[in-house]
Design brief:
Layout: H1 3-17, H2 32-45, E1 51-54, E2 72-79, E3 82-90, H3 95-105, E4 109-110, E5 123-124, E6 132-136, E7 139-148, E8 152-160, H4 173-179, E9 189-190, E10 196-199, E11 203-205, E12 208-216, H5 221-234, E13 238-239, E14 244-246, E15 249-257, E16 263-272, E17 277-285
Parallel strand pairs: 5-9
Antiparallel strand pairs: 1-2, 2-3, 3-8, 4-6, 6-7, 7-8, 10-12, 11-12, 12-17, 13-15, 14-15, 15-16, 16-17
Helix pairs in contact: 1-2
Amino acid sequence: MHRSLILMCAAATSMVTGRASAQASHPKDVPYVVVNAIFGGFAEAFGGTLQFSNGTTPEGWRAALTPPAPAVVVGGARFGPLTLTVFELPRSANVALLIDSTIARSGMTLGKGPSALPGMSAFTIASPSVSRTYCSKSGAASVTQVDSTPTTRLIAVAITADPNSSMACHPEAAEMAAMSRAPLQVPPLRAPPGASASQGNSGYGSDNLEVSAHIDTTFTPEELLTHYGKQLSSAGWTVSPTAIKGDDIAIRRLTTKDKQGNEWRGVLMVLTGVRDRQLTIRMVKDREQR
């Protein structure tokens, strides 16, 4: 399932229904003709035209995929094989658990694939992840947080009738994940209570690895370093006791060993953005061991 397509539909839906971010500089309700002029070309490239619903789920939506209160239907969009609904939930709600349990009850199961490679999807939230893909023989469902305010979160649930539209639903996905195992395993890292983490850029080679995430929180860089540093220490990693600080950035040095006993060195780094924090772990294996 194309993540860019899902985010585009969710953004357009939020604009039409007037539920886009409070920081966005536009009127509460944007006319459909304006939204279609902006996003319509992208929709056509994916094989359909945009159709919106405001305050209700779109035509063809499966009722079993609608979570109970306190979730509120913002609206939805549909074109081609993709049907999407955006839900608004209070930050105080266990968003991930509510959405995930709803989808699980509909008969779908959590997908397995390269997006969840061991050692590469380190950053999670305190409950099951907000960004997930579910599969069934009749299709796939993708759950993504698309926006937030100080009091609410906007969650998009997109469904398609083609389960093969997502790598996570391929029958050979588990085998692909095992073959693509990273050289250094990063332990699962939970975000602070009330915060969520969305996967950032990740990659690795035979002697290097980088994983990152965007953390939706107001924690300071130093507080995040302490929070994640304790988890890494509990997993056997060595974390420097003091942080290197600069303008909107904080870093702590890391060392650990892989299963073969090779030593890896790197950093745990936090960059401060306007609305979130970018957390990155970057590691390299000592040259003499390569």
